[in-house]
Amino acid sequence: MDRFQIERMISELSTLQSNFHLLKTQNEYLENLNEANQTKIKNQSKNLAEAQNSLRIKNELIKEITEKMIILKVNAEKQRENQMTQNAVTANLRKRIGDLETKITNDDVNRYAFLGKIRRLEDAVSACKIENANMRKIFEMEQTRTNEEYGNKINELNDEIRELNDRFKKNIDADRSSKQIDEDLWRTCSEQLKYIESLKTKNEENLMKMREVSLKQNETMKEWSKTKEQLKQIEAEKNSLIEQLNILKTRNRNDLEDTTCLICTTEMKTEEHDYDSLPKCNKCKRRYHIDCISQ
Predict the structure, then answer these.
(1) Beta bridge partners of 240
(2) Can you tell me the distance from the alpha carbon of 225 to that of 222, in angstroms, rounded to the nearest whole number?
(3) Is 269 a domain residue?
(4) CA angle 286, 290, 295 (to 5 degrees)
(5) DSSP assignment of 175-241
(6) What is the value of pTM for the model shown?
(7) Domain boundary among 66, 81, 96
(8) Domain span at residue 18?
(9) Which UniProt keywords are listed (predicted)?
(10) How many structural domains compose the chain?
(11) Cβ(260)–Cβ(267) under 8 Å?
């Protein structure tokens, strides 16, 4: 085996080692990617299991509520036969009224919190408007100054171009020194054109800053509108709760007034009579004994 073959084999061995390291690196990358995918699949499976568990709990809750509604319906039928005492009904109504008043108080607290958030958003909007106004003033000042400089440079450039054209027309057969002066004038004009381009770029940057401030202000206004909608929903829920509270208070007052017979003015014994089946006056809604009306 000659030297050339040995060097070729060494080169091939080096190439194989490089390919081996490359394949090893790719294998490690694929293993890491596979592990990440397995972790992602596990997390998704876990989330799916949690969602299924949540759905199962909700279904069980719906089933339980349905069963309770059936039980409540049966109890309502039984209640017509075995009327609860007025004191228990009154206590239950007072408890519900207290719960509703507590809920209304909590809604008021949440409402004040939303009002505070709205005030902060209004302050942020005002700050954005002030910043926008300041940026606009700076932009207008910069624009005015830039336009003046731009116009002055253009006028100077036009004057120099006219001068250069005049000189070209008058000095067609001028010597080399005259040509050098003309080249200097052209170079000066080119530099001024570059400066004008830089002024245009600066103007575009100022316009971009103005657009960013406007976008920020629009986002703040959207968040403020969303918070106002939430406040309207809370107001609507509060009004609904107040309406329910008034209904319960009215019902409680009517129940308290409807405890004595309209004719004999004695207390109605709800445990001795089917209270709901007793006749009542169409005007005052008070009930009376059947025996009393027959007399």
Answers:
(1) none
(2) 5
(3) yes
(4) 110
(5) -HHHHHHHHHHHHHHHHHHHHHHHHHHHHHHHHHHHHHHHHHHHHHHHHHHHHHHHHHHHHHHHHHH
(6) 0.33
(7) 81
(8) 14-81
(9) Coiled coil
(10) 3
(11) yes
pLDDT in tens, the chain (295 residues): 566 777 777 777 778 888 788 888 888 888 888 888 888 888 888 888 888 888 888 888 888 888 888 888 887 777 776 666 666 666 777 777 777 777 777 766 766 776 676 677 667 667 766 776 777 777 677 667 766 766 676 667 667 667 766 666 665 555 555 555 556 666 766 676 677 677 667 767 767 777 777 777 677 777 777 777 777 777 777 777 777 766 665 655 555 445 666 666 666 655 444 556 666 666 666 666 666 665 5
Distance of alpha carbon 154 from the chain centroid: 51
The torsion angle over the Cα atoms of residues 258, 263, 266 and 267, rounded to 10 degrees, is: -20
Q: Which amino acid is at 283?
A: K
